[in-house]
Amino acid sequence: MTPFRDDPGAEMRELFFETSQELLQSLNDDALKLERSPQDGEVVRSIRRTMHTLKGDAAACGFKELSELAHKLEDALAEGSAADAGALVQLSLSAADIFSAMLVAYRKRTTLPDTTAIKQMVSKLASGPRATRSKRKATTSKNSGVMWTEGERKSAGAAKADGKSIFHVVAYLDQLCAMPIAARQMVASQLASIAQVIAARPDEQSATHAKKFDFLIATSAAESTVNSNCVIPTVISHAECFPHGVEAAASADIARGGAKFPVPTEKSGVAPETAGPTSVAENILRVGTERIDNVLNLVGELIIAKSMMQQSMQEFTRRYPKDPLRARFSDAMAFQSRVLNDLQRSVMKIRMVPVEQLFRRFPRIVHDTAKSCAKQVKIIIRGQDTDVDKSLLDAIAEPLTHIVRNAISHGIENPRERELAGKDPTGTVQLDAYHQANQLIVEIKDDGKGIDPVKLKAKAVKENVISAADAERMSTEEAFDLIYRPGFSTAEQITEISGRGVGLDVVRNVLMRMKGTIEIDTTPGQGTTFRLKLPLTLAIIQALMFRIEHRLYAIPLNAVAEIARAQESDLHRVDTTEVLQLRNRVLPLVRVGQRRNSELEPRRDKIFIIVLNLGERKLGLVVDALEGEEELVIKAFDDHTVSTDLVSSASILGDGRVVLIMNLAAVIERFTRSGTDVSNSGSLPRATDGAAPEVRQ
What is the mean pLDDT of residues 170-199? Predict the structure, then answer.
């Protein structure tokens, strides 16, 4: 295996590990495009460009094995024909997998994976009839005696990386032609109309006694078109066109846009990059997320300091209302506030990335899973421009993969079953992402057979997960909760994809760690939608602060629809739910905190109802007093900091008070399960003036 050295190239290799993931994703995308459009030559050229970039970048980092394999694959793709589209697709997908495994081995410094299988695929593709013809012509071209300069080979290498074909054209002078110089100019002009003429031999001064002319060209035209353009009656008798095997210098690979690394030298391992005329400055700076987190934490501290200054300024104004310094302090504070707000928004945007970075891997996952299950499935992606915190995006990657695979293996029927049910033989999985209030919503929807609660309970009884008596008493919602039981699976048989009882329990555990929830909407025979709701665990938000039982809490302001004032006598109870009649609409209410003893404690005369947006529904949160709006820096808790999941994070006010950020998702889930009083499963932690929150010992 390629040895690692403690040299300045370590940072370069880390950059390669990151950028190579983008190249492999492009390779997967192009392979799937080629499967849909086998005659699309531009897709094949795009795959070759990816291989070319991987080859150059790996060589620059000293990863010889990966570079050599990429070189073999690049040549194989150049030799494959349209009839080989299926083989090219399989080769490209296999290449993406083996390259990914090699990158993991390089990063962890472990043994490289076996590449025998993919090399056999390359050899099989290279042994086709077109490959034999190409090799013969390339050999003829190589033996023609023409030497191209280093600069000409660099230009040819750059053009080849752009997807153009490189040809060595030999035009033979007609015996009746008495003007070789004019003939050379005519052929060059004809070639220039369909190609980029990189070089020509001999030059005009030496063409007086020439019998043939050699041209090095880059073109998208077919070989036959090149030949026909060269033949000019009484001037050029015939022409030959040979595919040219460009073996450009390593520096040419680096000068090519997309290759980003310098060539290692024996002395230092890293040499400065010499930008050629075709190189373009990369306007991207890659920074580790931990550095961004540090900056974000500092911005948060500045915001707390701003709040302290504002409170001090208010106290100064009350004491010295006519002091001439008051206006100057106010102007300075206003300027500082504007700059700090701009800084805050800029830093937050750095951490936000489009969800497309996660979604774009799923076409390959759907392709492979459907193939394994012998099903026909297409994927629809929406909301890919929705911005998400990078750490959140990484955390939901595994849960999404579980759900998508389950949708195909459990939900989508096979083509025959779908036809009998009057459906399109090809099933659909749809991914969607959007923001709702203070949450990120990710939906995974399929048009399969849905989840039948009756069958679900029967399978659970059969596997001794529940008793028959429990099944009889279970509601539909409780039946759906069975799919999250560890070890329980609805699959009829165990496969590589499903049936092992590992999956959705992992999904819910991951979401719970992120203070998120998962919902299921299903209709038997029509399909299922899994809806993931995730809070923004690290952010700087505008919040509404309030008190419940003398404790200070806050919720994101964008989750608030309105605030209503009411008397305790205005509240009514319907079954187990407390409600309020609000403008001809019945609003369900939820209380948090300790359970009230209505017989021992007097009813309060005045309360406030914070009306929360829940999509198309609304829910009223009963609070004792309002504290106003404040810009808060959210600091997420880990699993062992607080004794309840009803709060997810905290912040510090300018006067030193601790305010707890309520986890609305958990509050709503508790309300759905147990009714109006969500304190049954544990009280909220305290956060009184100047006191730290109550934590688990």
Answer: 85
